[in-house]
Amino acid sequence: MLKYIIKRLLISILILFGVSLIMYILVRCMPTNYIDLKFAQAALTDGKVAQRIDEFKAMYGILDNSFGGIIKGYFNWLGNFLQGNFGTSFKYEKPVAEVISSNMWISFAIALVATILQFLIAIPLGITSATHQYSARDYTVTVFTMIGLSLPTYFFAAICIKVFAVDFGWLPANGLVYGGKIYADTFAGGLEKFGDMLLHLIMPILVSVILSLGGLMRYTRTNMLEVLNSDYIRTARAKGLSEGKVVYRHAFRNTLIPLATLLAGILPGLFGGMLITEQVFGIPGIGNLAYTALVEGDIPFIMGYNMFLAVLTVIGTLLSDIMYSLVDPRVKLAK
Questions:
Q1: Weakest-pLDDT range from 172-181, 270-279, 302-311
Q2: Which of 190, 251, 271, 282 shows the greatest Cβ crowding within 10 Å of its Cβ?
Q3: H helices of the chain, where?
Q4: Structural domains in the chain plus CATH codes
């Protein structure tokens, strides 16, 4: 196991190097950047501003957009990255690591709650759909989850805002707290603010859960159907075990084994934020910040954020492989 982990970590370093190089080249090939956007208007009327723009670009190593200049800029960035310096965000005017660490927790809270609810709902739906294959229940569950899977996030979020915020007025439409409201610096004020935030997060979590049910439900259904057709399940039924024991004691346990592979995608999703959902609901999470930084060409933040996700993806994949070998003794990790 230790040799396998060391081997995978060494391979992961090469993967991260390749990912970072590709990302940096793509980011540098963007048609604009934050410095150009910020001073564009002033540069049209003042020639000195245009000169200052070039000075800023030279200082940050983004003036030369030739292939050689891009490669040189990449290795300058890589050297700083290896020393733990992710750079300073152009837009937020803070170290990239500080911006990520201070804004990812609200995204983490939303994603964690949504993921837990997703598993609690999708797995039972997948099981009941498999155990009642081709029945009205199976078709109903499948159609419901496929509709959720097919809806674009921004479209379904807009419908929820229209219904729950505009028409009924039950929930706030955006933000984390009501704008302009001042909370007392007391325990009661803290509870009030916490309750306010929970109210604002209901719709984003609802949208995330409904739109993500379909994939996990179908995955569970497919695995359950495969297990239910296994020889040992037919043997268990032949011994006279009740259907409940056959499904939940024998089949369900083995159905969970392939779900361990989902760990690879869960980890970056928990910390990486939900870009479109946070944008629609105006939540100041890391996904929203990353979207704004991408639109405005904030190169240091884009690189730091994407490397953060790349590292989480590599860690998630490694944990997934290890977890799979632990839950399924038949799987042996090659050294």
A1: 172-181
A2: 251
A3: 2-28, 34-45, 47-60, 67-82, 96-131, 136-150, 153-160, 187-228, 231-238, 243-245, 252-259, 263-272, 275-281, 286-295, 299-327
A4: 103-297 (1.10.3720.10)
